[in-house]
Predict the structure of NrdH-redoxin.
Amino acid sequence: MSITVYAKPHCPQCNATKRQLDKMGADYSVVDLTQSPDDLAHFVSEGFQQAPIVVAGEDTWSGYRPDLLSKVSQLINA
């Protein structure tokens, strides 16, 4: 499963999301939204208003979502 975390520097929710993914042993990439204005504009146009924005397979969400991270963990470890 491909996982990308679109994050901002000094973002507590972004850091919590990355820590949780690290604990799960997930392989993921990070995109800095402050360095990627096209990605930021795309997500804003889709209605996302907070960081991080996580794209995990077919699922996309914003904010620190332990419930959805748990779902990803189950899929990774299946």
